[in-house]
Amino acid sequence: MKNQKSTTLLNQEDPSHQTEVNHPEHERPESSDTDIEMVQSLPAGMSGQVSSNTSPRPPTLNSKPVLYRDGDTILTDPSEEFHEKLLCDGLVFNCGDACGFSCTYCFSESSMFKIDKPIIDAHNRETGQELGYQDVVIRRRNGLEFLRSQLLNEDGSRIYSDPDDTRVIYSSTIVDPAPNMDLLKETAAACLLILKNTAWQIRLLSKSPLLARLVEKEMIPKEYHHRLILGFSIGTLDDEMGAAIEIGTGKVSMRIKALHWLQDHGFRVFGMICPSLPQEDYDAFSREICAAIRVEKCEHVWAEVINVRGDSLTKTTEALRNPELKISAQRKAELAAEATRLESVSGADNKEAWEEYARQTFLAHTKNIPAEKLRFLQYITAESADWWKEQRANGAVLIGEEAKKRLLIAGGESARQVPLPPLEDADIKFRNDREEIVATAVTASIAAAKALHEIKTYRDGLLWKTDFLSFDRYCEAKWGYQKSHAYRLVDTGSFIAELADSPQGENVPQPLNAGQIRPLIESVPKPHRVECWNKIMTGKDPAEFTGPMIADEARKFVRKHKLATKAVKPARVSVKVRATRELGRLRSILGKLPQPQRFDQLLLGIEILINQDLPGTDDGLEPTDTTTENSLASGRPTINPDVVAEAMAAADPVVCLPEDIDGGAARLLDQYHRLILLGTE
Fold it and tell me: What is the overall mean pLDDT for the chain?
């Protein structure tokens, strides 16, 4: 992105957005710049079912009380409806249930009201009010923590770990992501969680110019800006009409200024001409609004007419005729004429007029938006399907039940691939030099590993992404490397880079080959790898060590520091069954050692832990949990489980093993230890 000094455009806020959530002073939450500690405090007494008549006043946004729901999800995967609209690749996220704005044509109530009705009813009982869905803001308590749990496994590893999974996730399908600064911070925090823990792109749509603050104020760091696609909903160029039917939103003119700022500063944007009302001159309307949003600088442009959702059309016409609007008499008359045009295409008796309104809007847009950019959303009927089917090549995206029945749902990706900057001469030389090293060096050499790691990580993969969809395809095409071998080398190169970046720097003894350090990389958690290597090499020459010797030293390091080893992938049997099998193998090996009874207490303690602490199944299979019964039948002694648990909590069984235990037994017990961690952490 261009690193230019911000203009005053976004420093001069739209007055409608200068007020943040209005908390009573003693309840005002503390703001935080971290990606989790965003403003999510629950006011006292607002637990969803309020009973006390002395509860403090809840916070407000745009004069709406802010309520909270105990949700259990933020991310929805998949979201078929919005994938069909090509707004995303099956992924959406929502940080709330009811919006800070009040648009007359909003459809969220139809999908969320049943879920949120108990919370609204509780608030009404407490306050004596009679508020509906559109009269409140509903946020999800601890939403960011739920999002984190949807992105990360319990051990902190990524659930969506494929670096080539660059799908587009969309927000928001229910609430605006930027109605004020408090909620924009929450959106920024959610985006950061997604950007840090996936390779996804994020598409955000808002009716607030504050959305541009995400990048202008670097609420999301620059390193992620190329994965953001920002857009503003602009269905009219008339500020006064927008204020009438999009209550509480930022002025349309301010949204357009924010869009221009993003375009002028090189950010990725999309257009959203939605919803547009019936027009006197469709061609003039399309020409003017397309010029205003600068179609040529948008990746795509969605467009849609206003659709019948509940009483949306009635609410919109009433809002356009609202006598309380603070505008001139002439403007009131003009908006009333807009309402009359909308009524002329509304209702069961005007289906043909409504269809003509949709077609005229679409045809006008085809004159101003290239087919490859236009995504005109249209619900079709049995009668209109054939005509619209022919318009798909011109940018029509057909949706709804009839489109599904006729297999006319659009396919394809929501956005183009993440854009890459062009390679400069220095980039090309850097890549050529390292490709030559990989090509001429011994396959498992340190030099090859270091060069391959540098190619993979240079400028977020720019050197190989210009020509290949994935890094493993690049390695296979260049050198015939299989994916597993390529990534082993990259891991080795990463470790070499860690050594170079450590405080000791060049004073650290360097490995002689990749095979020498591979056991350390595989067994020692990444944050401790350099420390382990330095410990092994203190006062030693790397030439003294073979790979197996390094493996033994690394294992001792892990045991001494009681480090959690890498989690074992779940197999097609339960953790308990796998642990039981490994325990049987361990007993067999230990039985061959002198005085095998030395291990009885330890083995029985392990057996008790298996049967009491490990989950019975992890994949829906029935466990074969007969270990305890077999133990009793074989005459082995039984002891108090609490005594064993206490003893094993105080002394790691790995550390307590006698020194003469052979390598095979040590490896088996180490594997058992990993299973325990997998089952209990």
Answer: 79
